[in-house]
Specification:
Blueprint lengths: L1 E5 L8 H14 L3 E4 L7 H11 L4 E4 L2 E2 L5 H14 L4 E6 L3 H6 L8 H16 L38 E3 L4 H10 L2 E2 L10 H13 L8 E2 L2 E6 L3 H17 L8 H8 L3 H12 L3 H6 L3 H7 L1 E3 L4 H10 L4 E6 L4 H12 L3
Parallel strand pairs: 1-2, 1-11, 2-3, 3-5, 4-5, 5-6, 6-7, 7-8, 9-10, 9-11
Helix pairs in contact: 1-2, 1-14, 2-3, 3-5, 5-6, 6-7, 8-10, 8-12, 9-10
Length: 344
């Protein structure tokens, strides 16, 4: 099993931390560094910076938000990052949720499976330098008709990689099944290695329906990781991250992470975290993340327990563990992951 590092977005990691940890991961021989976006720092800019500061480590978007960009704009960004990194880029895509899609980008959160499939198809064809003409928006407005001068265009630049890998972030059963059918890699959150079939089952079904197998997919869950001689301190270090996703990354009526926690048998605890977070009590929300929830969705361990915790993910079918370094010594987490997973 390979290990990568998830450097998220500000303010979880400062720009300085993102660069320092990416450079460290590069020096230590880790597999990859991933950058996300929510409604603040965008991922493309930071990945461009990291492409210039690293030499060997893979660089991934985890995730670029589908409602934020036309698929052709995403393909342009992916091709640019692939060239700047000399062929090290991996394109992670996700829909985000209804609050972000409709409130931040003004894009209806509908037809999500079809929209994702169509988006991935256009991105792939654009990167393959096929002539592309994106359908017009508002083309049926009689008061402002289009010029009719649009035409299919072919991407001017060439990615370094012949096939640039596309990952999907998905945790809903149907979305996971679709990832199994069409994605090169999969970036879930809250994959519980003690109950992997909750998510791996739909992934396998989707792969098999498309004539593929799990071996065709890089299973790369995003996992908060904290290491401390005091197990309680390690658990406390990952609680704020889990609380943020359970409480803030979605509406009360529609939070995919709470739904997944429910499927894992932690629904009551997840809903309490959500209630406290939505009520403005971030400290209380973090404290409400139970030990069972921590152990289901994160690696919080002593140094001596790290190897076995990593092994549980490998046995569950994970091929790349994308670790979110948590706690005061994030660099120490990166070093420990490299010591446990990198063969020199």
């Amino acid at each position: 099993m390979r290990a990568g590092v998830f450097l998220a977005y500000w303010p979880w990691f400062s720009p300085t931390e993102q660069v320092e940890l990416a450079v460290l991961a590069d020096q230590l021989g880790l597999d990859s560094v991933w950058v996300a976006e929510a409604w603040g720092q965008d991922a493309v800019s930071v990945l461009g910076l990291l492409a210039g500061r690293t030499q060997r480590v893979g660089l991934g978007s985890g995730l670029l938000q589908i409602p934020a960009r036309k698929p052709t704009a995403t393909a342009m960004a992916a091709a640019t990052l692939d060239v700047l990194s000399d062929g090290r880029f991996r394109l992670g895509l996700g829909l985000s949720g209804p609050q972000v899609s409709e409130g931040w980008y003004g894009v209806p959160f509908t037809r999500n499976l079809a929209r994702t499939r169509e988006y991935v198809d256009i991105v792939r064809r654009t990167l393959a330098r096929e002539p592309i003409q994106v359908p017009l928006e508002g083309g049926d407005d009689p008061d402002h008709p289009p010029t009719g001068l649009g035409k299919p265009l072919k991407l001017l630049t060439r990615p370094v990689q012949d096939t640039l890998p596309i990952y999907l972030g998905a945790i809903g059963p149907r979305a996971v099944r679709q990832a199994g059918a069409i994605a090169d890699g999969w970036l879930p959150f809250l994959l519980n290695p003690a109950e992997p079939e909750v998510l791996m089952g739909p992934l396998r079904e989707g792969a098999e329906e498309a004539g593929r197998s799990l071996a065709d997919i890089d299973v790369a869950p995003v996992v908060p990781v904290a290491i401390d001689e005091d197990l309680g301190a390690a658990r406390d270090a990952v609680r704020p991250w889990l609380a943020f996703y359970l409480g803030a990354m979605g509406a009360k009526e529609k939070n995919f992470y709470v739904d997944l926690a429910e499927r894992h048998g932690h629904g009551a605890a997840a809903r309490e975290v959500q209630e406290l977070m939505l009520g403005g009590d971030r400290t209380g929300a973090a404290a409400a993340v139970t030990d069972a929830l921590v152990d289901a969705g994160a690696i919080a361990t002593t140094p001596s327990g790290l190897d076995e915790r990593l092994a549980t993910y490998e046995r569950a079918g994970v091929t790349t563990l994308v670790a979110v370094p948590c706690g005061e010594d994030k660099a120490g987490v990166v070093r420990a992951l490299a010591a446990a997973t990198v063969t020199r």
